[in-house]
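I hope you will forgive my troubling you with a question about protein structure. The full record is reproduced below for your convenience:

——
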Amino acid sequence: MTIASHAIQEAPDKHDDLRRWFATEAAQKLRRVGALDEARKQAMAENKGKYVLVVEGAIPLKDGGVYSASGGQSNLDVLRETAKDALAIIAMGSCATFGGIPAAKPNPTGAVGVGEIIKDKPIINVSGCPPIPEVMTGTISYILSLGKIPDLDALGRPLAFYGETIHDRCY
């Protein structure tokens, strides 16, 4: 339930009550974000070098990445921190893989795909908007089952799914 829909259902009679309600909701959200951040950091520490990071969405670079943030930390900083000890990264969707629509000119936020930021990890690009569910589950299953990164094409996409187009069979 969104804050707005909850506010309508619980509509206080006075403006002060509404301001207090929103302030309480904001504080609770920050506490939830803090708890999630601690859980993320604990999981990263316990699985250092063994976890696969899955990223969805383009990452804004302009102005230090302030155009996409949560809990006072930019998504650019979260990506760098979380990718540091990952085994590999799966970029899910056209935005995470190649920047997508957010990276289209004039690109006011400086949005880019994961591969333009992270250079020292294998990046598996599962492009598409939305990404194909079978490619997502197949890629994750491959890594979990075989314990290695699938073979990739020149664009970093899994060859099993992107290695051949329907036109390759035209005669």
Q: What stands out?
A: The first strand starts at residue 52 and ends at 56. DSSP finds six helices and seven strands in the chain.
